[in-house]
Design brief:
Number of domains: 1
CATH superfamily: NAD(P)-binding Rossmann-like Domain
Helix content: 40-55%
CATH topology: Rossmann fold
Strand content: 5-15%
Distance between the termini: 38 Å
Bound molecules: nicotinamide-adenine-dinucleotide
Order of helices and strands: EHEHEHEHEHEHHHE
CATH class: Alpha Beta
Radius of gyration: 18 Å
CATH architecture: 3-Layer(aba) Sandwich
Number of strands: 7
Length: 266
């Protein structure tokens, strides 16, 4: 219809989800969703650089290397823009390029909204929203300068579109920001062939949700908010990550894909 967009030839083969030869960056891959995502990308063929804070990330790196892929850990606090930028530069020095970013690192705190301090606000914003933006920017600059397409996958949350009384107002604000930041970046960077999407997990069994899972009443109430009446596992996020990283999603951008056991289906 004459819009000037360039279509990408997609072959319907069993390799539709294949990531051979791709280089992925995952932030926060020592455990939880980030670790599962990093391993999942490697299983489908990608080499993986993990930018994170925890030395435990070396375990994820060893597990990926055992799959026969290249993997490196670059100690990085994504809340520090200089560290985020130098981490991406190091990936390009080591691997020559980057194709996929999974913006996963995130933190949460629980406090009634009336007691939240400016310091708490700044620290969560710095990682979840500011860190995510500047990681995306650093990767987009590489893709634009190398004139190649790429994928940016932001890990949002059900709390990007619904509220709760759980006492995580700043977290909700960051995740809501991520949903619409995803749309804005998708629109701006479509001209470079960079597809930007968001995944919105429901409650997943990770360290982040340990506190709520230790309170039987709260755990049951949260389970019951999901149509499937349970928490998900980190492994259940991997299919969406691989989909959004691969040729299976060449016409998907600006999307917020919920992997939430039906939490937002009510
Ligand atoms: N667990 C859930 O129920 C759930 C639900 C929706 C969304 N999410 C989102 O998924 C993502 C991963 O969460 P998770 O449950 O696996 O959490 P987690 O706490 O188990 O893991 C978080 C990871 O991020 C790393 N990290 C934290 N701050 C960092 C920083 N400043 N720089 C670099 N790395 C940092 C940690 O070291 C860790 O590896 C987060 O963005 C979270 O908001 C989680």
């Amino acid at each position: 219809m004459g819009g000037g967009g360039v279509s990408v030839p997609v072959r319907i083969t069993r390799d539709l989800f294949g990531l051979d030869g791709k280089v992925a960056i995952v932030t926060g891959g020592s455990r939880g969703i980030g670790k599962a995502a990093a391993k999942g990308l490697a299983v489908f063929g990608a080499d993986v650089a993990i930018l994170g804070r925890s030395p435990k990330t070396e375990e994820t790196v060893s597990e990926i290397q055992a799959l026969g892929r290249r993997a490196i850990f670059i100690p990085t606090d994504v809340g520090d823009v200089d560290q985020a930028r130098s981490g991406v530069e190091r990936v390009v020095r080591e691997f020559g390029t980057v194709d996929i970013l999974v913006n996963n690192a995130g933190i949460a705190s629980v406090a009634p909204a009336e007691e939240v301090t400016p310091e708490e606000w700044d620290s969560i914003m710095a990682v979840n929203l500011r860190g995510m933006f500047f990681m995306a920017q650093a990767v987009a600059k590489v893709l634009i300068s190398q004139r190649k397409p790429g994928r940016i996958i932001n890990i949002g949350s059900i709390y990007g579109i619904v509220g709760s009384e759980i006492g995580a107002s700043i977290y909700h604000a960051t995740k809501g920001g991520i949903v619409n930041l995803t749309r804005a970046l998708a629109c701006e960077w479509a001209r470079y062939g960079i597809l930007v999407n968001c995944i919105g997990p429901g409650f997943i069994v990770t360290d982040m949700t340990q506190g709520v899972r230790e309170d039987p009443g709260l755990k049951r109430a949260i389970e019951n908010r999901h149509a499937l009446k349970r928490f998900g596992t980190p492994e259940e996020i991997v299919g969406a990550v691989v989909f959004l990283a691969s040729d299976a999603s060449t016409f998907v951008t600006g999307e917020n894909l919920f992997v939430d056991g039906g939490y937002t289906a009510w």
